[in-house]
Amino acid sequence: MAKEKKRGFFSWLGFGQKEQTPETEKEQEVQEQQQVIDAQPEQVPAETPVEHHSESSSEPTAEAQAVADAEAQAAAEAKVAAEAQAAAEAKAAAEAQAAAEAKAAAEAQAAAEAKAAAEAQAAAEAKAAAEAQAAAEAKAAAEAQAAAEARAAAEAQAAAEAKAAAEAQAAAEAKAAAEAQAAAEAKAAAEAEAAAEAEAQAAAQAEPEIHEQEKPTKEGFFARLKRSLLKTKQNLGSGFISLFRGKKIDDDLFEELEEQLLIADVGVETTRKIISNLTDGASRKQLRDAEALYGLLKEEMSGILAKVDEPLNIEGKMPYVILMVGVNGVGKTTTIGKMARQFQQQGKSVMLAAGDTFRAAAVEQLQVWGQRNNIPVVAQHTGADSASVIFDAIQAAKARHVDVLIADTAGRLQNKSHLMEELKKIVRVMKKLDEDAPHEVMLTLDASTGQNAVSQAKLFNEAVGLTGITLTKLDGTAKGGVIFSIADQFGIPIRYIGVGERIEDLRPFKADDFIEALFARED
């Protein structure tokens, strides 16, 4: 009973109630049943009752203390476990909350970034779409404008082509008519000239031989030369007599002389050189009389021409190729015909190349010269390649062992670069057959052009390298003084001068004869 009372006391205090599990309660029931069995009175001897009572009263106290200690320990352990579990649960809850907050923040950030990215992409796509639309509109506008311009250009071109075609047709018809007329006129003129020469030759043959002896050819030519230079002499040579007569040598005289030389087209540079040399000579010789200066002037001008007095020598080459160049209208083709006749009279075989395939009737004119003097002419149709014609002529001349080949070329302005390039091409083609050809590049100049002849000489010399000059039409001009300017500036040999229409009026240049004729006094 005492056990039950003590158990009931501790149970009332409530120790261990929370920690009891079904297994613990079952175990306690078993122990209580065992205690009831143990509490039943045993059959003990009667002589020991006091001893037995004493042992029974001490046992419940020890057990109760042990149970109390166990329960206290269990309660402490339970409290520690509970605190540990609560701490763990609090930590887990805090970690879960932190994780949830971190996740929420990450999701919010991801959502914000996704939204920003979506907005940026939408903006970029909108911008790209706007640019694409603008580009498409600009392209469409450009294509429309280009189409309009192309159509306008096509219409303009069509109109221009139609106009050009009409003009070309008109020009071709006019050219054909002009060529036909020029050919007819050239043929008529050549035939008339041939007839006149035949008559002149016949008349010359009919004259008594004594007349030829009384008036040598040289004297006859000198007289003709004086007459031909009559207009030039009015400004140069004997024309200076009136300038010097009765005057003293001073600055005024030299100024008048300078003006007279410039009027005669001697040229500025050459005139200054002559005046400078005369001034030095007059001072050195202490001349006082102006007429004494006349002889000094003659010597000075003679010295200028003496440097270019070099006759053409055709010996040593076969065929000797002469390339004739010059501008339109200087008498180039006529000079070729006269030269050919003179070479023929010297016993040379001659051939002509009609390289002027541009000018109307130029080929026919050269052919007339050839027929008149029985000289072969290599020619092609008008408009053919000039270099090709001359190439064929050199081959033919080599095959026939001709002594002299004279090649005509189209007249060209010295300031047209493409025409000058064509001359260079002709020279290159010549050198394919003969590396020394042409052996003479002769420029024909019209004396009546004055200082323009100097410009021609300069540019032709730069283009093809001149080796000789023929100065024509000296008989009809007062500008013959240009011969001094050309001789002084270029030093190119003057091969021939033309002082008339007849064949013999083309004469090899001789400086002494020219000066004597120029300064000859009529009295």
TrEMBL record:
Pfam families: SRP54, SRP54_N. Residues 20-29, 208-218 have a biased composition (Basic and acidic residues). It is a peripheral membrane protein. Keywords: Cell cycle, Cell division, Cell inner membrane, Cell membrane, Cytoplasm, GTP-binding, Hydrolase, Membrane, Nucleotide-binding, Receptor. One of its GO terms (molecular function) is GTP binding. Part of the signal recognition particle protein translocation system, which is composed of SRP and FtsY. SRP is a ribonucleoprotein composed of Ffh and a 4.5S RNA molecule. It catalyses: GTP + H2O = GDP + phosphate + H(+). HAMAP family: FtsY (MF_00920). CDD domains: FtsY. It comes from Shimwellia blattae (strain ATCC 29907 / DSM 4481 / JCM 1650 / NBRC 105725 / CDC 9005-74). Its EC number is 3.6.5.4. SMART domains: AAA, SRP54, SRP54_N. One of its GO terms (cellular component) is cytoplasm. PROSITE patterns: SRP54. Involved in targeting and insertion of nascent membrane proteins into the cytoplasmic membrane. Acts as a receptor for the complex formed by the signal recognition particle (SRP) and the ribosome-nascent chain (RNC). Interaction with SRP-RNC leads to the transfer of the RNC complex to the Sec translocase for insertion into the membrane, the hydrolysis of GTP by both Ffh and FtsY, and the dissociation of the SRP-FtsY complex into the individual components. Residues 493-506 form the SRP54-type proteins GTP-binding domain. Residues 31-43, 57-70, 193-207 have a biased composition (Low complexity). This is Signal recognition particle receptor FtsY. Residues 1-70, 193-218 are annotated as: Disordered. It is found in: Cell inner membrane; Cytoplasm; Cell membrane. It is an enzyme of class 3 (hydrolase). Coiled coil: none annotated. GTP binds at residues 326-333, 408-412, 472-475.
